[in-house]
Design brief:
binds adenosine-5'-diphosphate, 6-stranded parallel β-sheet, Rossmann fold, 45% helix, 623 residues, binds zinc ion, 4 domains, 7-stranded parallel β-sheet, Arc Repressor Mutant, subunit A
């Protein structure tokens, strides 16, 4: 590192010393053997008193980047976080690890507030979590500005950017922190930020000269797949959930109504499903969130109102019953699976009608044409990835600007590469049929026309040259081809209030297909399937196996989980703040016989060892 060589030998050794101190806290307090990814670099920068921007993937350990310097540097660590749930989770987990952390939010009672401020002033509190609007109240700012701060951390920093997808106007005020706390290093962290969003973060948060740390977006623990929907896709969702019993999952649906219906069907099928959307009463939402977090296996069916800041680490799958809004949202939403680093899945169902609705929604928005154009492009990029024939994570990582990306080897496309067949001739037939029918009909009627099977077709229609010219495909085959043409923009669907009409798409592109200058290729149906794309079903695995637990260790693993459930219920905290599944699975594997051996397991810090060590060793001995 060039910058380091400019430092005096003394400064350099202080830098090493403080990083050593940070590593010691990582081991002692959090129970992890060493830093991973860019953690050491980011922490080193803050320890040296400089601000930074860190873009680390979900599960990359962003929170330790500000928690540890808060413990090592003198003064209070101030963390700004957009959601109460997010703060509550982190504070509970920190307290379990023996760290003096608190949060101030609209739910904090006045007496608690007084106590927290007293500890802030005494210097006995290490970390304080606040919301942006809470922090910006003049009285709060004034009180804090009299203190020495170890650092100011801005979590989910992409919320400051209009180019991101979670824009929060109140984040815009955070630029003022540069004046309020001129001596404290400021750290902005986020999991999703393309180059443009990063630029925005730097400008808005006044981090112009801060070093930027951008880690790879790879999420090797996630196996991704996508498939075209049949109908509403609900029965497919039921199947997918039934194949994954005893695990926690999140299912995203596009509308409140869709959420309610899907949750009902799952409940009727005996799945512990919870519905969540912005139309529900606030207290009901909070109760369901808590129920989900506390459960060993629960299925949350939700709109995107559910999400940011939900850090349940043991979510084993995210299913999009309806597709996300853009690739940024996709990565963030599926990113909620597998945060504990254990294998998890992201499964997306999509259709050409979803595409048509997305475009229609953008069109009806009251924003200027350039913003619309950006949003429309983002939608097309999403569908190109979903319906494409290339490795999915590789496509996403390239989209985020990563270079030298290789295929993941575990998404549906990598595992079972689709065969493409040339369908240009059939496409020409379909396009001319749509042209002759004048964009007045839906898909079913167009397929019937191609097959020459329209009911009550007027003579004017049966006389058309396209009537019955497509007997080479089954109805399903034609539907798939029409979808393909819609995804490619060769056809255009007008949602028409739920009775969609199909017309010709982009004129130049259509002409190119007529002339044979543009080829249309289509995925070939796997043998035995009538559909074009029904990716290989994921193997059915029992939950312990997916978590790396051998059959022989499964009883111990389950016993540890049961013990954890009890201790969590006693303390009214989610089970994972006691120990993550990853830690329990390592304990089940290692079967530690002594406190020293138990302390070596990742995730077992000193405080937890003291609190739970004897219990855990007892469970190990008994199983
Ligand atoms: P993020 O906020 O980036 O999504 P978290 O900070 O919640 O990620 O960390 C994700 C998980 O990784 C947590 O369970 C955390 O304990 C674990 N973790 C973080 N840093 C390390 C490390 N250096 N070694 C082992 N596990 C770690
Ligand atoms: Zn792949």
């Amino acid at each position: 590192m060039a910058a380091d060589s400019l430092l005096s030998p003394q400064a350099r050794s202080t830098g090493t010393a403080s990083l050593d101190a940070a590593r010691e806290v990582l081991r002692r307090t959090f129970g992890h053997a060493d830093f991973r990814g860019l953690q050491a670099d980011v922490i080193g920068e803050i320890m040296a008193g400089r601000g930074a921007l860190a873009v680390l993937p979900t599960g990359g350990g962003k929170s330790l980047c500000y928690q540890i310097p808060s413990l090592v540097r003198p003064g209070l660590g101030l963390v700004i976080s957009p959601l109460i749930a997010l703060m509550a989770d982190q504070v509970a987990a920190l307290q379990q690890s023996g760290v003096a952390a608190e949060k101030l939010d609209s739910n904090t009672r006045p007496d608690e507030r007084g106590d927290i401020w007293k500890r802030v002033n005494d210097g006995t509190l290490d970390l304080l979590y606040v919301s942006p609007e809470g922090l910006m109240q003049p009285s709060m700012l004034e009180r804090l500005s009299r203190l020495r701060l170890a650092l100011v951390a801005i979590d989910e920093a992409h919320c400051v950017s209009q180019w991101g997808h979670d824009f929060r106007p109140e984040y815009r005020m955070l630029g003022r922190l540069a004046d309020a706390f001129p001596d404290a290093p400021r750290l902005a962290v986020t999991a999703t930020a393309d180059a443009r969003t990063r630029e925005d973060i730097r400008a808005e948060l006044r981090l112009k000269d801060a070093r930027e740390f951008v880690d790879s977006f790879a999420r090797p623990e996630l196996a991704l797949s996508a498939e075209r929907k049949r109908g509403s896709g609900h029965s497919r969702v039921l199947e997918l959930v039934a194949e994954r019993p005893g695990r926690s999952g999140v299912i995203y649906a596009g509308s409140r109504d869709g959420v309610e219906k899907l949750a009902e069907k799952l409940l009727a099928a005996g799945v512990p499903a919870l519905a969540y959307h912005a139309g529900l009463d606030k207290s009901l939402r909070a109760a369901r969130l808590e129920q989900f977090l506390d459960a060993d296996a629960a299925v949350m069916v939700a709109t995107i109102a559910f999400g940011m800041g939900v850090d349940k680490p043991d979510v084993r799958y995210v299913i999009h019953a309806d597709p996300p809004a853009a690739i940024e949202a996709y990565w963030q939403e599926i990113g909620r699976a597998g945060r504990d680093g254990l294998p998890a899945e992201g499964i997306t169902l999509y259709s050409s009608s979803d595409l048509a609705w997305a475009l229609r929604r953008i069109d009806s928005r009251d924003v200027d044409a350039t913003v619309k154009a950006v949003q429309i492009r983002k939608v097309h990029q999403l569908y190109a990835m979903l319906d494409g024939t290339g490795c999915r994570p590789a496509a996403v990582r390239r989209y985020f600007g990563e270079h030298g990306v290789h295929a993941c080897g575990q998404c549906d496309v990598c595992v079972d590469p689709p065969d493409a067949v040339d369908a240009t001739e059939a496409a020409q037939k379909a396009l001319s049929a749509v042209h002759r029918l004048g964009g007045r009909f839906g898909r079913g009627r167009i397929v019937d026309h191609l097959l020459g099977k329209s009911k009550d077709a007027p003579a004017s229609e049966t006389a058309m040259s396209t009537y019955g010219i497509g007997r080479e495909f089954s109805p399903v085959g034609w539907r798939d081809l029409l979808d393909q043409l819609l995804f490619e923009g060769l056809l255009h669907e007008d949602p028409n209030d739920g009775r969609p009409l199909v017309g010709l798409g982009e004129a130049e592109a259509v002409k190119a297909v007529y002339r044979g200058e543009r080829r249309v290729s289509m995925r070939k149906a796997p043998t035995g399937a009538d559909a074009i794309s029904r990716p290989g079903r994921p193997r059915k695995r029992h939950s312990g196996e997916q978590l790396g637990v051998e059959a022989a260790d499964a009883p111990l693993f389950e016993a540890l989980r049961a013990w954890r459930r009890e201790r969590a219920a006693e303390q009214h905290v989610p089970p994972y703040v006691i120990f993550h599944d990853a830690t329990l699975s390592a304990i089940a594997r290692e079967r530690p016989a002594s406190a020293e051996a138990l302390a070596k397991v990742s995730g077992v810090g000193q405080s937890k060892l003291k609190r739970y060590g004897a219990d855990v060793l007892r469970v190990v001995r008994a199983n």
